[in-house]
Amino acid sequence: MIYTCTLNPSVDYIIHVEQFSQGGLNRGTDTAYYPGGKGINVSRVLQQLGQQNTALGFLGGFTGVFIKQELDKAHITHDFIETDGPTRVNMKLKSEEETEINGPGPAISEEQEQKLFQKIANLNKGDYLVAAGSVPSTVSSDFYVKAAEICRKNQVNMIADTSSNALKKIVGQEVFLVKPNHHELGELFDTTITTVEDAVYYGRKLHEQGAKHVIISMGGQGAVYVSGDMYLQANVPAGEVRNTVGSGDSMVAGFLASISAGSKPEKAFQTAVAAGSATAFQDDLCERADVDSLLPHVTVHSLDKGRF
Ligand SMILES: Nc1ncnc2c1ncn2[C@@H]1O[C@H](COP(=O)(O)OP(=O)(O)OP(=O)(O)O)[C@@H](O)[C@H]1O
Ligand SMILES: O=P(O)(O)OC[C@@]1(O)O[C@H](CO)[C@@H](O)[C@@H]1O
Fold this sequence. Notes:
- It comes from Sediminibacillus dalangtanensis.
- By secondary structure, the protein is an alpha/beta fold.
- The chain has ten helices and 14 strands.
- It folds into two domains: 1-163, Ribokinase (UDP-N-acetylmuramoyl-L-alanine:D-glutamate ligase); 179-308, 3-Layer(aba) Sandwich (UDP-N-acetylmuramoyl-L-alanine:D-glutamate ligase), CATH 3.40.1190.20.
- The protein binds adenosine-5'-triphosphate and 1-O-phosphono-beta-D-fructofuranose.
- Adenosine-5'-triphosphate binds next to helix 8 and helix 9.
């Protein structure tokens, strides 16, 4: 069984503004509301790809009700801990550039945090847990580390998709998959990553420190996969980028859907990139048909080990 865990979900409020003027009154043209937060996005794409899963995490208030309704409509099971305050609304402003304003989210009490650990402790050997997104300031900063320890003890495969301090802390833990983008990977090692060679070099470090599969997404430049002595590179298919929000989450879902169905890493990596790009090419997250049609346009090749 696959579980996702979103500590700080969101209603993503998308608003298009022509010629955004900072400090002025702007009138939006199109708007949309989506259930968001990285783990919830992974849940939605997994479901599209035919993988039933359960969404865990914290949710509350009128925004929480909306997210639950949307998950119900998509036939995604969920088992959230109720928060006292409402789940945040994250604004995604689409103008000449994409600007995001992510809220802090409601306060989480010690008791609520412990309840979530209890749910994680109840997962079974062989299950997958995708822990994705930022850690709210009221949750222990080492939440993911503790979750990884519980998962290791119970032989649950943990996937960590986070950034900044939470990503730093997870390095050194035994996890099934990490998927930093090249900026996050650079930040982790206090460097700037611009080339595939750099991505492989630092990706190997993550692998050596406990991550079984490492995917480094590099936006329009493609992506790199590292595991053991297997180094792969994929191109991204050509297309018009409409929305990159959730494209990284779609990669995680694509990889997991494929590998948990028994595919080899090459195929799972190809599916990850197809799913990431399928999301980038439309307004909401990708649908299965989009992933299937992009798959033949993603080429995966082995990188010559002598280069590294
Ligand atoms: N210009 C592009 N053309 C085609 N595909 C793209 C483009 N930009 C992003 N993608 C797709 O989205 C995937 C993830 O992109 P990126 O490296 O920006 O991840 P991320 O920063 O983790 O995403 P997120 O915005 O969800 O946090 C890429 O590997 C690719 O599949
Ligand atoms: O604030 P976080 O947890 O880092 O990111 C939250 C978020 O930006 O990530 C998703 C896209 O990846 C969105 O659905 C959501 O609004």
